[in-house]
């Protein structure tokens, strides 16, 4: 029995961008592009009619923009949400925050390349949220100097775990700490695997274990924790 390929709709007002994405995604045995739209209204109609697994949406399109499209397809209160990955030229912080708040399953820059595009689709299908490394590092590195801790209070939330341990006193192994540092830099599973001489599947398993130990929902939460605790450091 073969697995059904991930069905994808492309929403971008530039024909050459859609053609490039189609070539990249259709080259993968587990992905197939089932529709294209050149504006937000057409993308919304297409997504509701075809019920794809993933929609790749640009932000600036005629009609409704990609952020509103994300909210309509994946936002809070949507009865049958569709996974949406925002793929754009513009990496403004407001766009990133709005996209994720509206339910986006990823935020990628068009210049990030085909490998990240493919991994972004697979991450969304796995329930994760992949953000381009340039954005991840810029947003999360601001957490390297956390504010002073408040005075202890019975109503205060528990402090963040130390870099060596997560909730329940389950420590991160040295290998898990290595992987967390690279996740905090915005590296993909494939790049981490190459760096540490392990398989991408092993990286995925380690990340799942780390998420359980830290109580985070995805790799973005892992990265935020790493920057907040000082485990992550800027690249030289």
From TrEMBL:
UniProt xrefs under SUPFAM superfamilies: C-terminal effector domain of the bipartite response regulators, CheY-like
Alphabetical list of InterPro entries matching this protein: CheY-like_superfamily (IPR011006), NreC/VraR/RcsB-like_REC (IPR058245), Sig_transdc_resp-reg_C-effctor (IPR016032), Sig_transdc_resp-reg_receiver (IPR001789), Tscrpt_reg_LuxR_C (IPR000792), WalR-like (IPR039420)
Modified residues (4-aspartylphosphate): 58
HTH luxR-type domain residues: 165-230
Superkingdom of the organism of origin: Bacteria
Biased composition (Pro residues): 145-164
Domain (Response regulatory) ranges: 7-125
Entry keywords, A to Z: DNA-binding, Phosphoprotein, Transcription, Transcription regulation
Pfam families: GerE, Response_reg
Chain intervals for the UniProt region annotation (Disordered): 142-172
PANTHER family linked to this entry: TRANSCRIPTIONAL REGULATORY PROTEIN NARL-RELATED, TWO-COMPONENT RESPONSE REGULATOR
Name of the protein described by the UniProt record: Response regulator transcription factor
Gene source species: Streptomyces roseoverticillatus
Organism phylogeny: Bacteria, Bacillati, Actinomycetota, Actinomycetes, Kitasatosporales
